[in-house]
């Protein structure tokens, strides 16, 4: 009987405040969708870092004849065979080095033609202008500075470059987008909490006579508050469910179909459905608990009968 009464009161409260309840559902859904999206984006950045950092190399570019005339670091002339042998030998002795691959000027020219053969400048580039290099794969990419310190400035070496720097700009952009999503999520969350508190106030005021009678017949504070808390929790649960649908639809259209980033960006290792599904219980739990806690706190102040 008590459960039936509580459920009937929940239905009455939702019908009386239908517009505000709808606003709560929408604001909770958007804020939680942004929250889930931010979590997924952070995981995507982490996945891409693990994938690409395992593939990037440290490149040691050697001086050629053209560099000897233009680059201060190559003032002593192009790299000699003895210098190349010494550099390779020193790399082989380093414990942090996993593999070393030598790329000749002809090989560098061939790769350049494959990538930029359609551009105007490619027609005037000659093999002797290309730099020989050593492509060094490290066991730990974070230890790039060890290689840079050992070889930068050495005779025959024009520069030492870490390919992670090329990717870092992309990761910084994605992290910036993630922070922006979290900021918008925080704003939406504040709006949702304000709507929840206001909805509870209106609902409690509209039913002050009923709650007063319940108090007179000996009903406990928790029993009186339960319908209001359940109303807020139900609206939050609906908002969480909508947020889950938005995350699933977003993953489906952005990566698999519609925009189909997985087909257009095949070199990117996108997060799978398992990562999305793993976040849904958290979104549902927050959607259920956040409005309930907010309603409970609001009722301590506004439900005085």
From TrEMBL:
Ranges for domain FtsX extracellular come to: 56-160
Q: Kindly give the InterPro entries that the UniProt entry links to this protein.
A: ABC3_permease_C (IPR003838), FtsX (IPR004513), FtsX_actino (IPR047929), FtsX_ECD (IPR040690)
Bilayer-spanning residue ranges: 21-41, 179-200, 212-230, 236-255, 276-299
Assign the protein's first listed, main location to one coarse class.
Answer: membrane
| A Pfam family assignment | FtsX
Which Gene3D superfamilies does the entry mention? 3.30.70.3040
Membrane topology qualifier: Multi-pass membrane protein
Q: Where is the ABC3 transporter permease C-terminal domain?
A: 183-304
The compartments listed are: Cell membrane
User: Domain of life, per the record?
Assistant: Bacteria
Sorted keywords for this record are:
Cell cycle, Cell division, Cell membrane, Membrane, Transmembrane, Transmembrane helix
Among NCBIfam families, the record links this protein to: FtsX_actino
Q: How does it assemble?
A: Forms a membrane-associated complex with FtsE.
Q: What does this protein do?
A: Part of the ABC transporter FtsEX involved in cellular division.
Q: Which family does the similarity line name?
A: Belongs to the ABC-4 integral membrane protein family. FtsX subfamily.
Q: What is this protein called?
A: Cell division protein FtsX
**Organism from which the protein derives:** Streptomyces zaomyceticus
Taxonomic lineage is: Bacteria, Bacillati, Actinomycetota, Actinomycetes, Kitasatosporales
* Record gene name: ftsX
């Amino acid at each position: 009987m008590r459960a039936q009464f509580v459920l009937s009161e929940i239905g009455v409260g939702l019908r009386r405040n239908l517009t505000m309840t709808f606003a709560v559902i929408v604001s909770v859904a958007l804020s939680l969708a942004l929250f889930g999206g931010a979590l997924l984006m952070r995981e995507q950045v982490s996945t891409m870092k693990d994938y690409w950092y395992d593939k990037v190399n440290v490149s040691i570019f050697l001086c050629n004849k053209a560099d000897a005339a233009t680059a201060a670091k190559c003032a002593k002339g192009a790299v000699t065979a003895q210098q190349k042998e010494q550099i390779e030998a020193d790399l082989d002795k380093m414990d942090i080095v996993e593999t070393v691959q030598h790329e000749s000027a002809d090989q560098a020219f061939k790769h350049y033609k494959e990538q930029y053969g359609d551009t105007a400048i490619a027609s005037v580039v000659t093999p002797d202008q290309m730099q020989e290099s050593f492509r060094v794969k490290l066991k730990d990419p974070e230890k790039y500075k060890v290689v840079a310190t050992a070889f930068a400035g050495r005779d025959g070496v024009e520069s030492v470059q870490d390919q992670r720097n090329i990717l870092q700009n992309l990761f910084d952009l994605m992290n910036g987008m993630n922070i922006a999503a979290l900021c918008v999520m925080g704003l939406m969350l504040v709006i949702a909490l304000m709507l929840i508190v206001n909805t509870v106030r209106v609902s409690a005021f509209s039913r002050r006579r009923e709650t007063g009678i319940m108090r007179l017949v000996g009903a406990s504070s928790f029993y009186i508050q339960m319908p209001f808390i359940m109303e807020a929790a139900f609206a939050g649960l609906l908002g969480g469910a909508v947020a889950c649908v938005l995350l699933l639809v977003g993953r489906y259209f952005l990566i698999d179909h519609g925009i189909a980033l997985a087909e257009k960006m095949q070199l990117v290792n996108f997060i799978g459905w398992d990562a999305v599904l793993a976040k849904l219980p958290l979104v549902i739990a927050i959607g259920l608990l956040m409005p309930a806690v907010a309603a409970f706190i609001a009722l301590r102040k506004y439900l005085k009968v």
